[in-house]
Specification:
The protein is an alpha/beta fold and 409 residues long. The chain is built from eleven helices and 24 strands.
Length: 409
């Protein structure tokens, strides 16, 4: 098992008690509840609330062994996974669930000026930049320099971009209100830039429009149809237009994990591995690919790149593996649509549940309950519930400590 995100974790758990030995390889020691990672980046939650040690999660699963390491490539001919440092792990069956990486569309130099949000390290860096922008603004005497410090640009109007922009606006309007003497944090400018014609493009147009209106009510400036042509330490270039900003966050897209290319099998334009109806790769039924790394061109409608899809794939391939060990016929994967949820801010969200479309407070309440329910571990649920209750009534954010020179807790 390569990767212990949602797909990998659910596959391992589905194999508990089965007559197999499972080796889990991950480049971190924790499973990350990524839908709430933006709250770590915006000082709403601490890391332990959204992450749990993989070894602790699987401690009672005696047929599972956890290896800390990075899988660099897969040798299909020899049925071996090559790890960093040259170590190899042989396999009889292989599940690849290494997910996605950041995608700057060929402009990798932008990453230094506009971090994206995929890991805890990314969240720490974004939180550091945002909070220190306010601290530096207190010292800045030049009005133009202060305006640049207090301009926060989020590039990409998908769920992550919308959630980050809404949270930045709430920090400025509510959390930091009254804490500075030389400027009013409420005058901070949050700009969400989307290259398409609407935010949340995967949602129905009516909900996208409601999301835009809810963002604007929070104080976010939404720019649609704007293409980013440059990012540097002083701001963002949008064609002929220039936006001065010291803090820029990239939420415009992801690319498949580079491990997929090492398999030597067909991949799509996003680098995802094309799999069959049983999620196995062509010519190698012993290797299955799931989650954000898998491309399912035969599936109608398309499978969205969200956590529920990865979970379903993980459980599915585990069940198929057991069937194959019994020499029984394996099944074809069909994604069961469980809906989509995106929060925008306090009491604001949008939700799609089949034909039911919701927005505002009802959608936000549904979003809150769903995320509490799906968090890994009882302690995580309690911690998040307490933190959210405190934040709801006080507008406070407890994770605002920044330690210079470190990517800290």
């Amino acid at each position: 098992m390569l990767g212990c995100g949602f797909g990998g974790l659910f596959a391992v758990r589905a194999l508990a008690g089965k007559p197999v030995r499972v080796t889990v390889v991950d480049r971190t020691n924790h499973h990350l509840f990524q839908p709430l990672l933006y709250q770590v980046a915006t000082a709403g939650l601490t890391a332990p609330a959204v992450a749990a040690p993989i070894r602790h999660i699987l401690a009672d699963q005696k047929n599972a062994t956890v290896i800390y390491g990075n899988a660099e490539c897969v040798d299909l001919a020899r049925r071996a996974v090559v790890l960093d440092g040259g170590d190899e792990i042989a396999y009889d069956r292989l599940i690849v669930a290494t997910g996605a990486a950041n995608n700057y569309f060929g402009n990798d130099a932008w990453e230094a000026y506009a971090p994206s949000l995929k890991t805890l390290e990314d969240a720490y860096e974004i939180r550091r930049r945002v909070l220190l922008a306010f601290e530096h603004a207190e010292r800045e005497t030049d009005p133009a320099g202060r305006a640049s410090l207090l301009t926060f640009v989020v590039i990409g109007g998908g769920a992550t971009g919308v959630e980050l922009a809404g949270s930045f606006a709430e920090i400025a309007r509510h959390t930091l209100h009254g804490e500075f003497r030389r400027f009013d944090p409420r005058n901070a400018r949050v700009v969400l830039v989307e290259g398409g014609e609407r935010v949340l493009p995967g949602y129905p147009p009516a909900l996208s429009e409601r999301a835009r209106l809810q963002l604007e009510r929070l104080g976010v400036t939404v720019w649609l149809g704007k293409t980013v042509t440059g990012i540097d330490a002083e701001g963002v270039q949008l064609g002929p237009d220039r936006l001065a900003a010291n803090t820029v966050i990239w939420a415009a897209g992801v690319a498949a994990s580079p491990l997929g290319a090492s398999l030597g099998v067909p991949i799509d334009r996003a680098g995802r591995v094309i799999v069959g109806e049983d999620l196995a790769i062509d010519g190698h039924p012993e290797v299955t690919v799931i989650g954000d790394l898998a491309a399912l061109p035969w599936h109608t409608p398309p499978v969205p790149g969200i956590a529920p899809a990865a979970k379903q794939m993980g459980t599915f391939v585990a069940k198929n593996l057991v069937l194959s060990l019994r020499n029984e016929k394996t099944k074809k994967f069909r994604y069961k649509d469980v809906g989509m949820l995106a929060t925008i801010g306090r009491n604001s969200a949008v939700a799609v549940l089949g034909k039911l479309h919701m927005s505002g407070y009802p959608a936000w309440l549904l979003w809150l309950l769903a995320h509490i329910y799906f968090l890994i571990g009882f302690r995580n649920r309690i911690v998040v519930l307490i933190d959210w209750a405190i934040a709801y009534w006080t507008f406070d954010r407890n994770a605002r400590i920044v330690i210079q020179g470190r990517k800290e807790p």
